[in-house]
Amino acid sequence: MPFKDIIGQDRAIGFLKNAIRKDRLAHAYLFTGIDGIGKRTTAINLAMVVNCLLPKDWDSCGECLSCRKIQRGNHPDVQIIEPDGQFIRIEQVRELSRSLYFRPIEGKKKVCIIANGEKMQHTAANALLKTLEEPPSHILIVITAPESKDLLPTMVSRCQNIGFNPLAPAIITKRLCEERGLDRRTAHILSFLAEGSLGRALSMDSQSLLEKREYLINEVCNISFREAGKISTFAEAMGKSTDDLLDTLEILKSLIRDIMVLKNAKEGVCPIIHIDCMDKIRDWCKRFSSARLFEIFTTINEAKKAINRNVNRVLVLETMLLTISRGEVRNYA
Ligand SMILES: [Zn+2]
Q1: Distance 59 CA to ligand 1 centre (A)
Q2: Which CATH number applies to 3-163: 3.20.20.70, 1.10.230.10, 3.40.630.30, 3.40.50.300?
Q3: Cα–Cα nearest to 171, from 37, 270, 45
Q4: How far is the CA of 101 from the centre of ligand 1 (A)?
Q5: Beta sheet of 110-114, edge-to-edge order
Q6: Most buried residue among 9, 39, 90, 132 by CB atoms closer than 10 A?
Q7: pLDDT digits over 284-316, tens only?
Q8: For 205-331, CATH number?
Q9: 13 alpha carbon – ligand 1 mean position (Å)
C-alpha cells in the first residue's frame, strides 16, 4: 500500500518521505507504537519505494512488477522475519545476516523487516547487532516493536526511531463502516474500545461486544454492596468465561469513563462513547461521586494488569466488583 493510502501516520510518513527525497535513508529504522496502526504496512511500502521501477512523489507506484512482487510477498530481495512460535530465534537471525551480505538479486536494495522485534531472543538480538554495526550499503532493515525499551539499548542506538501514533477514533470508525459494513453507532463504540488500533478494531466481534455491554450495564454496574452473594457469582461467571476477559473489562472501563466525562467535562469537549446509553449514564452520574468514579476506574485498570500477570481471576474480579458495589453516593453521604 503506497504511503498516500496509509492513514493517520502523516508525521512518520512525512519523515520517511523527506529522507527519501534527500537521499538520506538510514540503514536501519525502528518503528515503534502499539499493534495494528500501520507500522508493518509502512515498512513494506518503504521496501516498495526503494525498489520501485516507477516511483512518484517519493512514494511507490504500487503497480510495477517489483511493487506487486513485494505486496505478494515473493520478491527475492525483501523478507519479513516474524516470531517462530513465541520468539524470533538466533537461527532466523543468523540466516538473515548471511543472506543480507549478498547483493540484491532483482531490486536496488535488500530489505528486511523484523516484525515484533521485542520477541527477539537475547542471543538473536546480539547476532543482529553485528549486522547493524557494519551494515553493507545495499541493505535496509526495519524493526517494529511496541516501545524502544523493549529492545537492547545497543540495538536502539543503531536505528533511527520513528514513533507511530494510535489512530484517532474517527479514522477507525470510518474504516469499520467501509470495510466491515458496521453501522456508525457500533463502529463508534468499537473505535474507542480498540484504543487507537485499527487492527484490533477490525478483529473485534461487534455482536459479542454489544451483548457483553448489555450484561455489564444491566447487571454489573447495578450491583449493590448489600448483595455479597451476587458479587461472588458475577466474579466466578466472569472469571470462568472463555471470552476475552480483558475486552469485557475494557468495555466496563469505557462505561465508567463516559460517566466521568458527563459528570466533569464541559459540554462537547470529550465525546461520549456509549451515546446510545445516555439515559443510563445520566442516571449513574447522579449515583456516583467523582472520587468514587475515579476509584472504580483505577480498580478496573489494576484488575486488567493483574489478569495480565495471571493473578487469580476470580479474586481480582471480586475486589473490583466490591469497589463498584460501594460506588453509590448515598452509601457515603
Ligand atoms: Zn512500483
Answers
A1: 9
A2: 3.40.50.300
A3: 37
A4: 24
A5: 78-81, 110-114, 139-145, 28-32, 160-163
A6: 39
A7: 888 888 888 899 999 999 999 898 888 888 999
A8: 1.20.272.10
A9: 17
